[in-house]
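In the current project phase, we have settled on a layout for protein records. One protein thus recorded is set out beneath this paragraph:
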Amino acid sequence: MITKLLVANRGEIARRVFASCRRLGIATVAVHSDADASAPFVHDADTAVRLPGNTPAETYLRGDLIIAAAKAAGADAIHPGYGFLSENADFARAVTDAGLTWVGPAPDSVDSMGSKVESKKLMAAAGVPVLGDLTPETATESDLPLLVKASAGGGGRGMRIVRDLAALPGEIAKAQAEAESAFGDGTVFVEPFIESGRHVEVQVVGDGDGQVLVFGERDCSVQRRHQKVIEEAPAPGLPGATREALHAAARLAAAAIDYRGAGTVEFLYDPARDRFFFLEMNTRLQVEHPVSEEIFGADLVELQIAVAEGRSIADVVIAPPRGHAVEVRLYAEDPAAGFSPQTGLLTALDIPGVGAEFELVSTGSTGGIRLDSGVVAGNEIGTFYDAMIAKVICWAPTREQAARRLAGALAAARIHGLRTNRDLLVGLLRSDVFLEGRMHTTWLDDPAVAQSLSAPAADNLELSAFAAALALAERARASSAHHARIPAAWRNVPSQPQVASFTRGDEDVEVSWWSGRTPRLDARDDVVVLAATPGEVTLAVNGVATTYEVTVSGHLGSHVDVDSPAGHVALRRTPRFTDPADRVAEGSLLAPMPGTVVAVHAAVGDAVAEGQPLLVLEAMKMQHTINAPHAGTVIELDVAIGDQVNGGAVLVVVDTPEEIAE
C-alpha cells in the first residue's frame, strides 16, 4: 500500500491529488520551483522539496530531481498530475526503476499513445475510426483547411489551423517551436480540419489486465486557441447509438494497449454526418475530470491509486450517471485582446456557493458549486506557467439548471486584481448557442464573438464609473482631517462638473458629475444617488435601486473594482499628470504581456511590409508573434533572443506613415 505520495506537478492538480490523499490517509509531498515557493499547493502538502529554478525545464521537467526529492522525503509513490512529465514513458520507467510506485499507466502504454502519429495507426488496426494524415508535400488546396498538431503533449500548444497552403511551412515552424518549448518534442503532423466539429471524449479506467471501466463522455467543444474553456458531462444532443459507439470505441482503444489507470480517449464528432474520429488518447488524468466525477459520484484519483496498488477494479460498480455537470476554466487573460495572458496580483477570489475546495457536490441533496483552484487571493499570476486561475464546476439535475447556477455564481463572484475571462464565461453559459447545444470547436475563433459576449453594457459601465467616482470622493473626504464634515468634492461656486477619468483595458472611461449634498450624474436626470460611502454606492435609475460595491487597491489606489448585480467592472485610475518616462514614441510596438523573446526576424534599418513578423514573444508556454502595423522601416529594436521583457515594454519601433511621407 502507498503510504506517502509525491505529486510531480504544481498548482490545482497537485492540490486535487492531495485532497484525495487526505481522505485516504496517505501522506503527501510537494515539489516546487522558486516561483511557487509560497503557492497554496506547497502549503497543502505534509512536506515539500524545492527544485532550484523557475522555468519548467529547470524544475517540473527534471525527472532526476523529482525522483531524488521523492527519496529524500521518504515517498514511496509518484503521481504525475497532468502536463509536464505526466505522459513521459522514460520518466515512468525511471520511477519504477527507482523502486517507487508509479500512479499511472504502464510505460509501454504511454509509448503507444505518446506519438499521435503512431497511435492513430494503432487505433486504425484496432478498428477505431481515425482521420487520414497528410504531409506538407502531399497536401493540396482541396485538402484545406488543415490542422498542424504536435505529436506529443496537448492543451492546444503546437496547434495551428492553416487555410492558405502557402502559409503551411511557416505555421509548421511555429508549431514545432511551441511544441519543443512546452513538451521537449517538436514533432508535428498535418491532418484535415473538420469545420464546426465537436470535441467529445470518453473517460476510462483500466486495470492493465483487460478490464476497462467507462465513466461516460464529456463535451469539450467550447475552445479558444485550441484550449478548452467549457467542459460538460454528459455530452448534449448525442444520439443514443452514437454514445454507445463512442464508449465501445474507447474500450477498444484502452484494451488495445492493456491500459492501466485513468485515461481519456478523445474524438472529433461531426454532427452534420453523425460520425466520429479518434484524435488521441491522454494517458493521464485530464483537467476536465471533475465533471465526470460529479455525474458518477466517483473519485477518479482514488481509483488511480487503487489500480497503482494492484487492486482489482472488477468489483467496482458504476452507478448510472446522474444529472449534469458543467465546468469552466477561469483564466487570467483578456478575451477582447485575442485572449492574451495577464499577469499580476490576484487580490480577491470569492465565488458564492462554494463549500470546501475540491469537494464533490453531486452527492448532496441540492447540488452546488465546486472550486478546484491552484491559487488564492494574494497570489501572483506570473509568466512561467499556465494562466488558469481555477476550475469552477456546477452540478445540477438538468443541463439548463447547471448552466444557470454556474453563470449566476460567476456573475456574483468577486475576482479582482487582473483581467480575467469571467465575463466571457458568463456570456457563453447564457448564450443561445450554448444552451441549444450548437457550440463547436471554432465558435470562438471569430474575435467578435468573444468581444460581444464579454463586453459590459454601456449603461452599466457608465453607472459603475459614476459609483467609483463617488466612492473615491468619499474615500478622500473620510481620510481628510479638515474636510470630513464637508460633502465630498464640494465646490462653493460650482462652474463645471467634476470629471473622473479611468481606463478599462485599452478603453478610456470618463464620467462627469456634479458634487454637493445631492451628487448627480451630468446630463442624466434619471439617476439618483441614494447613498455613498468609500466602499458602497447605491444608485436609483427611474426608481430602481442598485448597490455597487467598490474596492480600491494598488499603489496609491490605482485599481478600482466595482461589483454589482449587473456585473463586474475593473477600472484603473488615470493619473492627472503623465510621467515623461512613460511616454513612448509613435510607431512603438509594445509587449502585450510579460514574456521572453524567442525569435527576432528584423533589424534596425530593415524595410518591412504591413503584417510582416518582426519578433516572437513567449509567455505562459504560448508564442505570440509581433507584426509590423504598417509598411515602413525599423528605426529601433533594442531586444534580443532570450531577453525577458515586461508587459508594455517597447519592443520595436517602425516609423509612422507621417514620417515616411515627410
